[in-house]
Amino acid sequence: MTIQSGATLRFTESDWFVPKEVVLSGVWKTGDQGRRTVTFCGTVDAPDDPAYLTLDAPCFNTVLTEFGAETGPRAVSFDLGVDVVVDQVSANAVSSLPALYQRFTGFWRVRAFLAVNGVRVTSPSEVPIAVTPTPIALSFQVDETYFANRDAVDAMFNLDPAVYEQWTPSLKSIAGVELVWGATDSVTGLTNVTGKVTKMGTYFLGQAFPALVVDNPTVAPMFKEKGVSSSVLHGLTIQPAEIAVDYPVAVTSATLGMKVRMSGFPKSRTTVCRLSRVITHSHYEILTLSFIYRKRFNPNTDVLNLPHCVLTGQDITEGCVLGPTDNVFAIYFPALGELTVRSVNDVPVTIARRRRRLLAGRNLLAVTEPTTEDFTDVLSGAEFSDPDVDPSGEAREAQVSVTDDSNQVASGPDVEIPTQPTNDLPNVFLQSCFVVTEGVAVVDDALNNVLPVTYYEKETTFLNTQTIVFDPDGTVLTKAEGTLFLFQTRN
Q1: Contact between 197 and 203 (Cβ < 8 Å)
Q2: If you ran DSSP here, which 8-state letter would residue 465 be given?
Q3: Nearest to residue 381, comparing CAs of 220, 211, 262, 263?
Q4: Is the peptide bond between 124 and the residue preceding it cis, with omega within 30 degrees of 0?
Q5: Cα separation of the two ends of the chain
Q6: Backbone angles phi, psi at 114, to 5 degrees
Q7: How far is CA 193 from CA 155, 170, 184, 293, 468, in A?
Q8: DSSP tag of 174
Q9: Most buried of the four, 97, 130, 309, 365, by CB within 10 Å?
Q10: Are the CB atoms for 131 and 84 separated by under 8 Å?
Q11: Each residue of 59-84: b (16+ CB within 10 Å) or e?
C-alpha cells in the first residue's frame, strides 16, 4: 500500500483537535494475495514543545484484502410475480466499507421488479420492489482457501452503498435464511453457498475478523456444593484485538455458558422393591431401568446469577435489568445453562414491559447503549450456585463469548469451577418399596402394604416389614444402626 495523500499532517494550537485525512491506495499485485495487515508508523516533530518530542511514534494497522475473478451470484425466485436482476457494483461507487472485513466476492446489487407470469411489467414503466413477498435464493461461488472456518462467513447488506455507509450482517443472523453450503467444483475449486434474501440492495460475502479479545482466569474459586454462590469470572477483561487497534468496536451481546459432558447413568426415576420376605434371602429387583445422558451441569438446580439481580429481587430466569443506567438486560436459561447479556434496547417489548414494573415505569427502550466496560462489569460479577446436586466433587466448566458490532464472536478460555462435595444423610424407610426421583428416595404408597405388628407376651412375633436404607450420595454405606421400640398395652 502507498500513501496517496496526507503523508505529512500539521497541527497547530487552533486546530489540534480537528481530524485530518490520510488517503491510502492499494498496489495491484498479480495473483490472489489474500488478507494482509499493513502497519503504518509515523514520527512526531514538535520543535516548540519538548513534551511532544518524547511521545512514541504513532502506528496504525490497515487490513488489505484481495480476491480473484469471480462469477456473479445466481438469483432464483419461484414467484412469477417477481423478476430479479443481479448486477455488479464498482468498488469506486461504494462510499464506505465495513471495518475489519475481508471480502470474498465483489459487490452485487439485487433488484426486483413487478412481473406477470414471470415477465417484467414495463408499461407504462417498470415497478421496482423494495421487499419481495417470498425469499430469493442468492447463490455465491467462493474459494474456501480464503478462510478457515465457514461459521465466520456471512453476507453483508447495504441498501445503497453509494449513499449509505452502514453495512449490516444479513443472512447468518436471521432464522430460516442461514447460509447453506453446497458442493465444490473440482475444476474451478469454487464452492457454492446460498442464502435467502427479501430485501433489495447490495450484498457481498465475506468474513469479519473478531475485533475483541476475551481473557479470564482459567480456574474460579472453590464452590462448595449446596453452599453459597461462588464467583466465576472475577478478573474478566475484554480488549480490542491487535488487528482492531484504533478501530471503533463494541460488544453488542455476551453469553456465559456451562460446558457439557455427556455420559451414561441410570435413569433418574427407579423403582426398587423387595421380592422376598425371608430375611436370610432378601433381595431386590430393578423394575424400571433405563439410561439417560447426564450433563456436567444440572439444569434443574444449577444457576448462573448476578449479585445485583439477587439484591433487587429480580428473577434471573425471567430477566433482570442492571447496569449503570439500567441499560443492560440479563437472563438465564436453565435448560441450556446459559446466562445471556445484551442491551435493554434489544429486548423484546413484552419482556421489557414486565421489567418496567421494577423500575418505576421508566422507558427501557430509550436508554444509552451499554459500553464494552458495562458488559465487562456485569459478567465479572457472575456467580454459580447449585443447592441440590450429587456431591461427587466433579468440577464444572464454563466459557464466556462476546459478539461485537460486526456480528463476530470472540470467546475466552474455559474456566474451571472446582467443586467441594457435600455429604447428605441417608434415608431410612420401614417400607417394602420406594422410588428414587432425582437422587431422593420417596415412599410410593401405591406400592406398599405394610400392616402394623402386634406383639403378644411370651410369644414370638415376626417383624413383617423391612428396613430400607438409601443414600442419595452413593451406594456404599460404612455403618448402620437401628433401634427397636416396644409399646406395651394393658387390657
Answers
A1: yes
A2: S
A3: 220
A4: yes
A5: 111
A6: -65, 135
A7: 10, 14, 10, 35, 63
A8: S
A9: 309
A10: no
A11: eeeebebbbeebeebebebebebbbb
Residue 73: asked if its preceding bond is cis (omega within 30°), the reply is no
**What amino acid occupies position 144?**
E
Instruction: For each of the domains in the chain, give its residue range(s) and CATH number, in order of start.
Output: 2-66 (no CATH), 74-208 (2.60.220), 212-260+298-420 (2.60.40)
In this structure, how many other beta carbons lie within 10 angstroms of the beta carbon of residue 191?
16
Contacts of 261 (CB under 8 A, 6+ apart): 295, 296
Closest to 218 measured CA to CA, from 399, 3, 61: 399
Which amino acid appears at position 189 of this protein?
G
Integer Cα distance of 153 and 173 in angstroms? 11
3-state secondary structure of 364: helix
Return the sign of the alpha-carbon dihedral for residues 162, 164, 169, 171. negative
pLDDT score, position 212 = 87
For residue 478, what is its C-alpha cell?
460404612
Non-local (6+) Cβ contacts of 338 within 8 A are 255, 256, 257, 258, 304, 332
Alpha-carbon distance of 308 to 378, in angstroms, equals 9
Rounded distance, CA 80 to CA 116, Å?
6
Q: Which three cell numbers stand for residue 235?
A: 478478573
Would strands 419-420 and 223-224 be described as parallel, antiparallel, or unpaired?
parallel
In order, the DSSP letters of 15-53 are: TTTS----EEEPPP-SS--EEEEEEEE-----TT-HHHH
Residue 364 phi, psi (nearest 5):
-70, -20
DSSP conformational letter for 296: S
Q: How far is CA 355 from CA 96, 310, 472, in A?
A: 39, 14, 39
Mean pLDDT per block of 10 residues along the chain (491 residues) reads 86 84 76 65 80 77 65 88 92 77 84 93 90 90 77 84 80 63 86 89 82 90 86 90 73 86 42 36 31 52 91 93 92 91 79 47 64 93 80 79 81 89 67 59 59 63 60 61 62 54
CB burial of residue 351 (10 Å; 0-12, 13-18, 19+): middle
Give the CA-trace dihedral at 241, 246, 249, 251, to 10 degrees.
Answer: 50
423, 435 contact by CB (below 8 A): no
179: how many CB neighbours lie within 10 A of its CB? 18
